[in-house]
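Researcher: Batch entry, complex prediction.
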Amino acid sequence: AQSVTQLGSHVSVSEGALVLLRCNYSSSVPPYLFWYVQYPNQGLQLLLKYTSAATLVKGINGFEAEFKKSETSFHLTKPSAHMSDAAEYFCAVTRGAGGGNKLTFGTGTQLKVEL
Amino acid sequence: EAGVAQSPRYKIIEKRQSVAFWCNPISGHATLYWYQQILGQGPKLLIQFQNNGVVDDSQLPKDRFSAERLKGVDSTLKIQPAKLEDSAVYLCASREGAVGMETQYFGPGTRLLVL
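Model: Structure tokens for the complex:
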């Protein structure tokens, strides 16, 4: 079975500061990993994904994440936060190729960006 | 390209009433998912369809929830009778279905409040 743990249900940063949202995964097989963002009253939008190619993955809106197998982590970062980044962020895992693509989500991290 | 469409966006009902949600996936997407997102939690898979067949419904409360995907396109999710704990956002997602096309695209969700 696969699972993800997101450390910190709420993260607050100043505008222009580094954003770091933590995700650790557990999987008995090589995983695919995803970060989704959810704005208020909207569905989930894919930020980026890791599917066993490059370990450093770049996504939309300046976000990136690095897959670290030794640490079972897939933390999301952005060098400089914008007010528009305020949203809820979900890490998700699925089995790798041929695994059926059932997504298991973390509990989410609410990002607040302050002036 | 049109995204995943869902209706209604909001629904308020009393407990023991029935309710139905509708989803129209992205054109050509063979795989369709229904997720339940309770406030403060990540989405949880209820049911997965591949064309018009059920792939995974292990977490669907079958005594009150039902879903169908006639003709392998649109899908409906029904709750009968509703309980207070069914208050949540119901998200529909679709995926192309081919090997390597692992990204799920989400609709805006239906927000259900059971009083």
